[in-house]
Protein 1
Amino acid sequence: SSEISPEDYTTFTTHLKSSTRILALFGAGLSAASGIPTFRGAGGFWREYDSMTLATPSAFSKDPALVWQFYNYRRHAALNATPNRAHIALAELAKNKPNFLAISQNIDGLCQRAGHPAENIQPVHGSIFSNRCTKCPYVEHDNFKDPLVPAFALPDDVDPSDAKFPLKDIALGDLPRCPDCSALLRPNVVWFGEPLPQGAVDRVENWMATDNGGIDLMLVVGTSALVYPAAGFIHTARARGARVAVFNMEEPTEEGPTSRLKDGDWFFQGDAAVLLPELLK
Ligand code: BJW
Ligand code: ZN
């Protein structure tokens, strides 16, 4: 359910109106209403594989064809998805509040497609439409080809997320290869154990350092807030005076986004695509 109490509605919308320095952290739950699967919980499996174990360098080195087919499936899903009402409400907020910076853990590009100005959003886990070479400096951006390589093509009646269809056995030579050195390409995303792109971290830190570093409001949207360093931005914002508003489907838990809420913070439980259009309008 997405019942918003009249008191929370009033205190939140009043604080939002007076806020100028606003930070946000977005997670997979923001895109859930667009049909993009999340990482944890019921939607966190692809075929028989836990998405969290596929998003690792060791999975890729052990079985690049498997990990590539997982990412090709998710590229296809992202390309065919539509931004939902939460993406749109947040993009509108960004247009109205020039000092709003959204940190997105999502790689699906849906915020940008909803019209969120590029200068107001900082992806920190990469993009599913960017690939890079595993050997040389080659990087490609905005590659929307689908399937990415002919070997990923599937008949219309085959759903690659359904384990009843056998996965393709793809030769290494038929996976995406570097045009410069012909080594294997990989998705230009951040896997566990890998550093976030330095430019992304710098951008967030620079934003935080401006205007004496004070932050009025921190929006935490659809993230389990368990993955660092991204989740740490919530703690930084709080330390700089921000009141925190969490928008999440799940019951409050000891760990995660609702773990350190205090008086003056908000927890709105429900679908971000229902809550945000109500609360940000
Ligand atoms: C809804 C909803 C609806 C659903 N409406 N809500 C400190 C302590 C312990 C460990 C570490 C630490 N610091 C670093 C680490 C290690 C590790 C880490 O954090 N591990 C933890 C799991 C403990 N971190 C790293 O390895 C990071 N790198 C690093 O630290 O490098 C250091 C280094 C420095 C120098 C040299 C070398 C290394 C990298 C982390 C990379 C994470 N990558 C992934 C994959 C990205 C590519 C891809 O998408 O495939 O990022 S994993 C995955 O998790 C993905 C997500 O962005 C990220 C967060 O997940 P998210 O978005 O929160 O999704 P879910 O599914 O978890 O949650 C969805 C939420 O939405 C739920 O709460 C639902 O209830 C809710 N929801 N529907 C509203 N409709
Ligand atoms: Zn190369």
Note: The radius of gyration is 19 Å.
Protein 2
Amino acid sequence: HLDRIGAVDSRVHAFLHVGTESALASAQRVDAALADGAEPVSPLAGVPLALKDVFTTTDMPTTCGSRILEDWQPPYDATVTERLRAAGITILGKTNMDEFAMGSSTEHSAYGVTRNPWDTARVPGGSGGGSAAALAAHEAPLAIGTDTGGSIRQPAAFTGTVGVKPTYGGVSRYGLVACASSLDQAGPCARTVLDAALLHEVIGGHDPRDSTSIDQPVPDVVAAARQGANGDLSGLKVGVVRELGGEGYQPGVRAAHDASLRRLEKLGAELVEVSCPHFEYGMAAYYLILPSEVSSNLARFDAMRYGLRAAEGRSAEEVMANTREQGFGPEVKRRIMLGTYALSSGYYDAYYGQAQKVRTLISRDFAAAFSQVDVLVSPTTPTVPFPIGEKVDDPLAMYLNDLATIPTNLAGVAGMSVPSGLAEGLPVGLQVMAPALGEAVMYRVGAAFE
Ligand code: GLN
């Protein structure tokens, strides 16, 4: 895989940092233990992985795609990083991303755009475009992403790979640099559903260092993926969300989705049309809640504690202001300003408070739907991968990418994207959503479908 990275990454730019020496050392440790007759520490021992550059790593920089953290070397490992290492997984390097996970194309990275291996003139999606592109270009067989509004699932759809957003609290956020804490969730990315399940089992489960971590065992996703591989979904009810898939979705995406529904029926699933009437307000609520949390979380980048510090300034305040001016890109600044405004006194109830109410209504839509069906499905994205440059100066067009993925984050339920074929010769994905801690049935459906 290091050779493959050397051969293709100058064209794809999936990686911000390749840890050649630490990767080889880690692989050699696994080999030596096996040569000594030790049992493998996990089914994935020795398998290489690409890690999104938003997880802290003591042996590699963690930049979050931002100038403000250029060359920053964290003093501790994220829980996800720790669990990968404990399972004998080799971390090849850190992957490119939209700055602080804000974006849908990886064009908002301070370190250059990642290209979609299917067509290098197009985006791989975002914010985790680096992780998805690394999988599609066969630079790594496994990757980790984070999904706040779709950043695992949308890049998976755009690159013909599998991406899972676990239930909120299912995977520790300790050492995951925060974007919007009530929405952020780490998850597995792979080329098959079973690989994603094996990785999910490694990173999932309770962590006392994350106060929102769920104190429950990881759902048995590996057994579910194996069960699904028999291609039999009889007895399962699959809800087709009426509000996700019509207006605003490209004709090619809709045609691919219709074909996916026929395939689910052939596998034995019973299709039921369900309505989630508040999903249409998801985008509006998300773009108040997310910037509000961003404006608070990113206050820590004050030039005093981490990373960049501007040379100019006659007072601490001026140094802070100059550092943030130089260190943050335009999308991050836009959201900090939006969030600061939404949280300001006098507007708080009208904007943030109202958005939280919408969030509750969306959770109730999910609860009502899941009382009728086992899983919900929709297209993962409204469009096929778009050309680099097409939406980068049009924030609203960029935000619309996450129309179908945002509701699951707002409600904290589980979602995944599995490849569902091609539209206009480019990959598209089927989104499968399940109730909180209902990952098993989601993996079963995903594995049967792929
Ligand atoms: N694209 C969405 C956004 O820009 C989602 C980001 C994410 O999931 N990290 O906010």
Note: The chain has one domain: 2-278+364-449.
